Amino acid sequence: MLAIVNSVVLVGLEGQSVRVEVDISNGLPLCDIVGLPDASVKESRERVRAAIKNSGFDFPLRRIIVNLAPGDIKKEGSIYDLPIALGIILASAEEPLEEPGEAVYAIGELSLEGSLRPIPGVLPMALALQEIEPGAIFIVPAANANEAALATRLKVLAAENLSQVVKHWRGEEKLPTVRAGDSTAQPTAVAAVDLADIKGQVVAKRGLEIAAAGGHNILLIGSPGSGKTMLARSMPSILPPLTYEEALTVTKIYSAAGLLAPGQGLMTERPFRTPHHTASAASIIGGGRVPKPGEVSLACHGVLFLDEIAEYRRDVLEALRQPLEDRVVTVSRVAASLTYPASFILIGSMNPCPCGYYGDPLKECQCTPHQIMQYRKRLSGPLLDRIDLHLEVPRLTYSEVETGAGADSSAVVRERVQDARRRQLDRLAATGVTCNAAMNARQVRQYCRLNAPARNLMRNAFSKMGLSMRAHDRILRVARTIADLEGADIIDASHIAEAIQYRSLDWEERKEG
Question: Burial, 513: exposed, middle or buried (Cβ in 10 Å; 0-12, 13-18, 19+)?
Fold first, then answer.
C-alpha cells in the first residue's frame, strides 16, 4: 500500500516542498530510503523503527521503500523522521485513513521513545511553504512552533510526540494551533556598555554615532587600554531597533544555523558577533560541504566586531571584500552555490604598530619603521577603501579619567540616530535601500547634493589625498549621514570636512607614497 506525506527541504535560506512516498509490499523485511538522502537521513530508519514501536504502533515486517521526491535535491538532517514514520503507519493501516481536507506538511526529528525534538531551519521552511501553498497545515515540533507561527498564512500545529500526530490524523485528538504573538520588533535592550560610561574619546564617540546613523563601517586605531573594545561594545546601545522585516531576516538566518533557543520566536535584538582572530575563512564567510551561514550572515542587520583585526589571517580579511561591497555573500561548493544576506556594520580595532605604542605620548614605541609598515599592510588597500571611518582612539589624560563629564548617554544618542535613519528611509523609500552606507554609485550622485563650497573642498581632497572612486563615494555617503544628523538637506563644506577627517589612513598612505 502507498502513503504520501508532504514535507519541506531547506536549500540555503529557501524552502521547497518534498513528497515523502512510502510503499509497503510483500517480501523480505527491508526499509530503504531513496531520493538523494545523506547519511543522517539514512540513519533515520532505526530511529523511526524504535519510535513507532515505543509509541504503541506495529512496525510492519515487510518490504518498505521510502522515496523523497524530487530526487535531484540533496536531503540532509533528521527533519524527515516524522513524515517517514507517519507514512509508514498510514501505509500499513488495514483500512485507509481519511486524509485531512487541507494540505498537510510535517517535519521533525524523533527520539527513540517517539517524542519530537526541535530542528534547525523551521522559519525559512515555513516562510517558503506559505508562498508555495498558503493556508496549508504545518505540523512541527512544539519547541519550533513559535518560530513557524511567524508565517502567518499557515496553520501551525505543535506536536509533542508521534502518537499525537497520528491521533490528529485519525481525527481522535486535535493538535493545538499556534499563532504568532505580538511580533512587532521591540527596541533592543540597553547594552552592558553605555556611552556615558566611557571616559573621554569625544571624537571616537562622534564617529560611532555617525556609523550607527548611516550603517557605516569603522576602524578603531589606538594603543592598548585606550578603550577600543568598550567603544565597539557600546555600538548596539545606539543602533535603532530592528524593523519587522529586518527581524524576520535575522531570525531566518539564526533558524537555518540552528542557533535559535527552543521555543523562541522573533528575534528583536540586533546581533553583535565577535569571532576570535583564529577563525577560518569558512566560519567567517560561510561554508562547509553543504554551505551554512557564516559570521558575516549571523551579523546581518547588526555588528561584526573584529578585535585586533590585523591578527586575522590574510585570506579571511580579503574574503570580507565582497560582502562589504555587495551586502550579500555567495558561497559556492560542488554540492550547491548559495547566497546569504550579509548587511552588517563592520567594526575593526587594531594597534598602531606591533608593540602598540607608536605615537603614544607616554610609552616609547620599540618598532622599526619597516615593522610598522608591514604591520599596517596586513589590511590591504581595497579592504581599507571599504571602511568608511578610520578613528584614532588616543590614550586618556588623567583629567578625562577623573571627570568624564558632559558625555551623552546611549539613549540620547540613539534618539538622534533614529531621527537620522527616519530621514534616510523617507528619502530612499523608492529604492529599497534603508541606510546611506548601502547606496550605490548612481544613488550617491542623486541624493548626495553638494553646495559650491562643498564641491570645491571635495575636488581638492580627491587630488591631494589620491582617493579612489570608492573612497570618494564613501566620503560622500558619510557626509550625507552627517547632514542627516543635523537635519540638513544639502551637504555643505563642514559636512565634507568632517567626513574627510575620518579618512586618516588615506592621508598616511599618501605621505608614505
Answer: exposed
* Residues 353 and 379 placed together within one structural domain of the fold: yes
User: What does the alpha-carbon distance between residue 509 and residue 394 come to, in Å, rounded to a whole number?
Assistant: 20
The answer to whether residue 270 sits within a structural domain is yes
**Grid coordinates belonging to 355:** 608593540
**Least reliable range by pLDDT among 271-280, 359-368, 475-484, 500-509:** 500-509
What is the rounded CA–CA span in Å between residue 343 and residue 362? 40
Q: Which pTM does this prediction carry?
A: 0.88
Contact (Cβ atoms closer than 8 angstroms) between residue 101 and residue 73: no
Determine the structural domain holding residue 352 and report its residue range.
195-397
For position 192, what pLDDT does the model report? 65
Residue 443 to residue 469: CA distance in whole angstroms: 14
Same domain, 216 and 160: no
Whether 221 and 83 map to the same domain: the answer is: no
d(CA 78, CA 431): 41
| C-alpha cell at position 21 | 512516498
Distance in angstroms (rounded) separating the CA atoms of residues 329 and 283: 13
Specify whether 11 is located in the same domain as 156. Answer: yes
Amino acid (one-letter) located at 87 = G
Contacts for 36 with CB less than 8 Å, ≥ 6 apart: 68, 71, 72, 73, 74, 75
Kindly state whether residues 135 and 199 are assigned to the same domain. Answer: no
Residue 433 lies in a domain: no
Find, among 141, 417, 92, the residue nearest to 255 by Cα. Answer: 141
CB 416 within 8 A of CB 213: yes
Mean pLDDT of 300-308: 95
